[in-house]
């Protein structure tokens, strides 16, 4: 008689879920430990090169980098944890025993999918509450080459704004509204795509409907002449918000904040395609964990004595890594505007959901 329940018995479900979670955590810990060690070896020289930095700064870097590594490699850990769990159960004939008891392939995988859903929920909360804040702090710290970060934070770096044909660059932007302060300003004055002059200034601030630049140097490209002035009044009507909103980074914002910022950018006529793709990926990224048991299920079935268990494990791993390649490719195409944002974030997820379900159905037959 065939068992029509979605899950196997409570004992089997708890056993499989517990085994899967423990092995996933072990794989994740090993991955993060190795990758963090290699990353620290590459960055420790830059950190310690700053006068006053020492062991405390190295540990601070580790505390900010680990959340990024956990968020990025958690789906990999789920994939490898699923493969290890299913391969070991296949080798010990536990899968065969379940099949002989009338438990279907879907019922065998169901506890792993449910546990993966718990992992996905944790990944989303961890990303929203910890990873975004750690990323923002680390980006600010790296912007000053691991030196002392200015008090008040909120400093945006390497900001570009376009006004007509002209391009305006600011090395750093602090404050908001009329309190906005620009540092390391460069204005590329163009006419019909031809560069006419380059204006550089040590700093700038809003003043009388325009901008007041300090310590200004103007280079005329056609004449090859340079002129200097202590100050210059720039009559541009660029609002200070253009500089602050231009530096919005999706990986530094939680879902709600990023959605609000996208609305503000759209109201200002800005292109938000890449940010919208990142917004949707904040949901599809953590949910990718529930795909891994489906994609790795091919390693669970088939006789271990047939000699094809290794081939099945490699096939499951290949399917999992193919998803990550497709996901990164689609997200990149979304950032370029080649794919609509929703499609860029969700198309790989639904595609490999269908592939995983197809493989499982063929296995069921």
Automatic annotation (TrEMBL):
Name the species this protein comes from: Allosphingosinicella indica
Its predominant location is membrane
Keywords on record = Cell membrane, Membrane, Transmembrane, Transmembrane helix
Q: Report the protein name in the record.
A: Lipopolysaccharide export system permease protein
**Pfam families named in the record:** LptF_LptG (PF03739)
Q: What is the lineage of its organism?
A: Bacteria, Pseudomonadati, Pseudomonadota, Alphaproteobacteria, Sphingomonadales
Where is the protein found, in the record's own terms?
Cell membrane
Q: What superkingdom does the record give? A: Bacteria
Membrane topology of this protein: Multi-pass membrane protein
Transmembrane regions listed in the UniProt entry? 20-38, 69-87, 108-126, 283-302, 309-326, 338-361
One term under GO cellular component: ATP-binding cassette (ABC) transporter complex
From the UniProt record, give one GO term of the biological process aspect: lipopolysaccharide transport
